[in-house]
């Protein structure tokens, strides 16, 4: 027990005064002469020594009364575990998409917000952060409206990220109690292999997860097959429980154009196929209905006539393999010899291939340098008898690269840079046991450009980055068998695809997305992206034959967006939320270390307040003083 005003306890010394008065009779008796002895017999003798029980009880009662009053004025209290420390509270509120799950009549997020509003005392100052917002040192009244209108976020912080972010929000003051409250459904996707133990910080976990929730998710949609008249659109769906079937609808804008039913297999996966007209503009939406999460019940996409990627190869060498790889469905391929080359055509191309040239004319070097500087992609395939000096004068100015010397020695191409962007989504796993292609001769190089394919000794066969690719050997049939290898098709095809980043039928929100629009903007024109009343300007870079748009933080809402140039729609693009949180698999909180674990926000904050509170006792001592007054009255009245 502690006292707010311990100096008042000195008043207890005053209790000695009534004790002294009681022990020492200070009253003096006056002598009175009597002439009649009979009168003396009627006088009661009074002794200086008082041993009356009543007087002892009254003394004790009054001493206790005064003691209770003095202690009451000193304001005694019993502190909680951390009541004598300054307190800092940081709250993490998960507002990810999985918090759309229903619990009762409200979503998980709505339930948690109401719990916070009811539980956090109005006078408390705290910091709250979500997956994309921070409210520093606020009171609950300051952010009440923000919490009630809190939107769902495309982001989901991992536990390690939450810990690191929380650390930055606490002060560095020593001797303070620091409470970190994590309020989430704790999906498995939030976990990380290594989490900080957060020393000196009390971590409290509140898990609120739905029970027996049925969720169906539209995972993806893609073109399965295409003919001159129709295309088959395949959509993959999944569920978290055993279901027989569920209806699936396909809309073009607001018009229903197809409806079918999906049947799920034992792996809880299902697929549907829609056959629709080819080369028809479709702003599509696949729709399902379930009682689970809302965000994965719709998947938006766009179909229409795609802009073909323009590919030009220059040279007299065999180009039949190039013509086959760059087919007419996606590419507009052409081949010209040096003699018939019209330099004015270069700037309109997306990809230019120098196919086995012995030397590169200076005029062509200058034109290609300008082409590359304006965003074009360039592939150089040398012949077996190149003019090294001529090539190097071009390569040094273009990429600070040199071809050093020719080596006549058979080498196998055995090393693949699987992480290179050129091979993204090409290999399911890193293969090491395929039949390696080989070359009979090659050029050694001096270059800082990343390797894509290498010989078994480590020398590069193909290097490239940022739209520039250089082979270090002729790939003609006389020098190499790589044209018979499965490597050549994805390598060259992806070079072509990367030269003009045609929008996919849909993009994912939250990831960095780059899209090329084949439009040449003048100096003051910009492309805008809009949906209904929402409009934003993405980062964009204009080149001679295209404009590159980069999407990162925006958009934040799924749907079909218009890309406009001075109010005119030039293209549609669709964005969807990632499906990572649709599986509804949750962590066991026993896996995590924490000061407290609850399934109720109110209970957690009650425990924290209890630790931070002070149990004041002065009222009890006032009641005790009143009780002693009542006891004294009873003694005076009934004890003779």
What is the compact description of this entry?
This protein is of the alpha/beta class. The protein is built from twelve helices and 35 strands.
What attributes does this structure have?
5 domains, Rossmann fold, 22% helix, alpha/beta, six-stranded mixed beta sheet, 35 strands
Topology:
Layout: E1 2-3, H1 16-23, H2 37-40, H3 53-73, E2 76-79, E3 87-93, E4 102-103, E5 106-107, H4 108-119, E6 126-129, E7 134-138, H5 140-148, H6 159-169, E8 177-184, E9 202-207, E10 216-226, E11 230-239, E12 245-252, E13 255-263, E14 269-277, E15 282-287, E16 298-303, E17 309-314, H7 320-325, E18 331-336, E19 351-357, H8 362-373, E20 377-382, H9 388-399, E21 402-416, E22 438-446, E23 451-455, E24 460-465, E25 468-471, H10 488-499, E26 507-508, E27 513-517, E28 527-531, E29 534-536, E30 539-542, E31 547-551, E32 559-565, E33 568-576, E34 596-598, H11 601-612, E35 614-616, H12 618-638
Parallel strand pairs: 3-6, 3-8, 8-9, 9-34, 17-18, 17-19, 19-20, 20-25, 26-33
Antiparallel strand pairs: 1-2, 2-35, 4-5, 6-7, 10-11, 11-14, 12-13, 12-15, 15-16, 21-22, 21-23, 23-24, 24-25, 27-31, 28-29, 28-32, 30-31, 32-33
Strand content: 25-35%
Approximate shape: elongated
CATH superfamily of the largest domain: Class I glutamine amidotransferase (GATase) domain
Radius of gyration: 42 Å
Ranges with pLDDT <50 over ≥5 residues?
45-51
Integer average pLDDT: 82
């Amino acid at each position: 027990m502690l006292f707010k005003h311990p100096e008042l306890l000195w008043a207890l010394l005053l209790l000695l005064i009534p004790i002294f008065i009681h022990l020492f009779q200070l009253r003096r008796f006056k002598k009175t002469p009597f002439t009649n002895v009979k009168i003396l017999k009627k006088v009661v003798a009074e002794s200086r020594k008082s041993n009356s029980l009543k007087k002892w009880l009254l003394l004790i009662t009054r001493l206790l009364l005064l003691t209770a009053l003095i202690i009451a004025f000193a304001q005694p209290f019993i502190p909680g575990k951390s009541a004598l420390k300054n307190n800092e509270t940081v709250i993490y509120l998960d507002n990810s998409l999985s918090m759309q799950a229903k619990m009762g009549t409200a979503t998980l997020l709505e339930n948690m917000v109401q719990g916070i509003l009811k539980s956090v005392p109005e006078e408390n100052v705290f910091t709250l952060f979500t997956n994309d917002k921070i409210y520093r040192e606020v009171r609950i009244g300051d952010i009440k409206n923000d919490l009630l209108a809190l939107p769902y976020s495309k982001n989901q912080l991992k536990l390690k990220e939450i810990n690191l972010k929380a650390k930055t929000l606490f002060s560095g003051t020593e001797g303070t109690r620091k409470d970190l409250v994590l309020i989430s459904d704790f999906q498995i996707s939030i976990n990380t292999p290594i989490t900080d133990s957060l020393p000196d910080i009390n971590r409290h976990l509140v898990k609120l997860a739905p029970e027996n929730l049925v969720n169906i998710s539209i995972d993806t949609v893609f073109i399965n097959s295409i003919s001159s008249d129709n295309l088959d659109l395949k959509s993959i769906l999944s569920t978290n429980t055993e279901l027989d079937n569920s209806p699936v609808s396909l809309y073009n804008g607001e018009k229903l154009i197809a409806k079918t039913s999906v049947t799920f297999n034992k792996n809880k996966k299902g697929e549907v196929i829609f056959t629709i007209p080819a080369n028809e503009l479709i702003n599509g939406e696949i729709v399902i209905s379930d009682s689970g999460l809302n965000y994965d019940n719709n998947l938006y996409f766009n179909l229409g006539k795609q802009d073909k990627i323009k590919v030009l190869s220059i040279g007299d060498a065999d180009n039949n393999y190039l013509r086959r790889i760059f087919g007419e469905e996606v590419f507009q391929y052409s081949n010209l010899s040096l003699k018939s080359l019209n330099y004015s055509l270069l700037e309109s191309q997306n990809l230019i291939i120098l196919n086995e040239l012995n030397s590169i004319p200076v005029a062509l070097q200058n034109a290609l340098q300008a082409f590359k500087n304006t965003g074009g992609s360039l592939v150089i395939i040398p012949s077996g008898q190149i003019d090294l000096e001529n090539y190097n004068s071009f390569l040094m100015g273009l990429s600070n690269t040199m071809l050093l010397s020719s080596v006549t020695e058979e080498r196998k191409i055995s090393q693949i840079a699987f992480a290179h962007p050129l091979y993204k989504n090409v290999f399911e796993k890193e293969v090491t046991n395929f039949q390696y292609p080989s070359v009979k001769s090659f050029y050694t190089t001096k270059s800082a450009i990343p390797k894509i394919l290498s010989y078994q000794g480590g020398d590069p066969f193909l290097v490239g980055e940022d739209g520039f690719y250089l082979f270090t050997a002729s790939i003609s049939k006389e020098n190499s068998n790589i044209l018979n290898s499965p490597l050549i098709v994805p390598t060259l095809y992806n070079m072509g695809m990367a030269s003009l980043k045609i929008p996919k039928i849909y993009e994912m929100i939250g990831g960095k997305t780059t899209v090329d629009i084949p439009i040449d903007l003048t100096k003051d024109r910009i492309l805008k992206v809009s949906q209904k009343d929402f409009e934003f300007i993405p980062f964009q870079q204009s080149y001679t034959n295209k404009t590159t748009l980069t999407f990162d933080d925006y958009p934040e809402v799924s749907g079909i967006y218009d890309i406009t140039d001075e109010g005119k729609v030039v293209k549609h693009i669709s964005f969807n939320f990632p499906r990572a949180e649709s599986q509804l698999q949750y962590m066991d909180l026993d896996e995590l270390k924490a000061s407290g674990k609850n399934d109720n926000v109110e209970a957690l904050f009650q425990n924290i307040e209890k630790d931070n509170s002070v149990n004041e006792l002065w009222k009890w001592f006032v009641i005790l003083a009143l009780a002693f007054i009542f006891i004294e009255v009873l003694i005076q009245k009934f004890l003779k």
